[in-house]
Every structure is written in structure tokens, then in C-alpha cells.
Amino acid sequence: MADNFKYPLPKFHFEVSWGGTRMGFTEVTGLDFETEVIEYREGINPTYNKHKQPGLTKYSNVILKRGTVLQDFEFFKLWRETAKFQEKNKIKSVFRRDITIKLLNEEHKPVITWTLENAWPSKIQSTDLKADGNEVAIETMELVHEGLKIVEAE
């Protein structure tokens, strides 16, 4: 009987891969989506209410946070690739990659995998500086993307 009981998964053991590069993060937020509702009523409908049907899906921006590490400027290098929109009056394509976020079990194997499609960093935020603080310096990257796939491990 005890074998059938399932515990909720802990959320602290995860891995983020950016197009083959594995980066360590302390926090990932924004793995959500919403389907807009379309309300419609035909003119000859005898009832005085609208029908609701699914519309377009909207994805939230994903926010990644990590501690600032000495001589590690990978956040800014990735953002620079995106920021090269215009060079000598020629517009270049935006740098995009698929991002994979995996929730891991105690054997370090993926339990749930989220894949952000065509993601690119839209915002980089350096740490706040505070003379009387004793916190770790945290960097933040905000990613926009065009889709979210969720796969459960088998």
C-alpha cells in the first residue's frame, strides 16, 4: 500500500540548458501560459448568452536568476547577440535558441521538461548595490519566447 502513495516533487533540483550550454540558476519563474477566451453570440440565438471558445495562447516571459560570478559575463554575451539588430544600416536577424528547463529527481534524471521555443533575452538586470547589505549579488535575465512545450518523463 505504501508503494502507491506519491509525494509532491521538490522544486529545488533543476537544470537549465541554453542551446547546449548549461548555466546554473537559483530561480526560474514564468513557466505559465493562458488561452484567451473568445465570446460569440449569433444574432438568431434564442438564448441571451454568449458561447465561449478557446482563442490564441499567450505565454509569459520567463525570468532566470543567478548569482553574479567573477569573470562570467555569459548573460551579457547572449544579450549582445540579440542586441545586434542594426549594423551599418543592415538589419540582422534576432538571435534565438530553444531553452530547456528540467525538473530533476533524486537520481538527477528529468521528471518534467519545459522547452521554450525561439527564446531570446529581452532584458538583463545587474544586481542592486547596497553598502549595508550582506546578500549575494544576483543577476536577472528575462526571456521572451514563441511557445512552451511540456514533457513528462516516462
Protein architecture, described:
The protein is mainly beta. It has a single domain, classed as Pnp Oxidase, Chain A (Roll), CATH 2.30.110. It has one helix spanning 74-83; strands at residues 14-18, 21-23, 27-29, 33-40, 51-59, 62-67, 86-87, 90-91, 97-104, 110-125, 138-144, 148-152. The strands form three sheets. Strands 1, 2, 3, 6, 9, 10, 11 and 12 form an eight-stranded antiparallel sheet that branches. A two-stranded antiparallel ribbon has the order 4-5. The longest helix has 10 residues, at 74-83. The radius of gyration is 21 Å and the shape is extended. The model has no long low-confidence stretch (mean pLDDT 83).
What's this, in brief?
With 154 residues, the chain is mainly β. The chain has one helix spanning 74-83; strands spanning 14-18, 21-23, 27-29, 33-40, 51-59, 62-67, 86-87, 90-91, 97-104, 110-125, 138-144, 148-152.
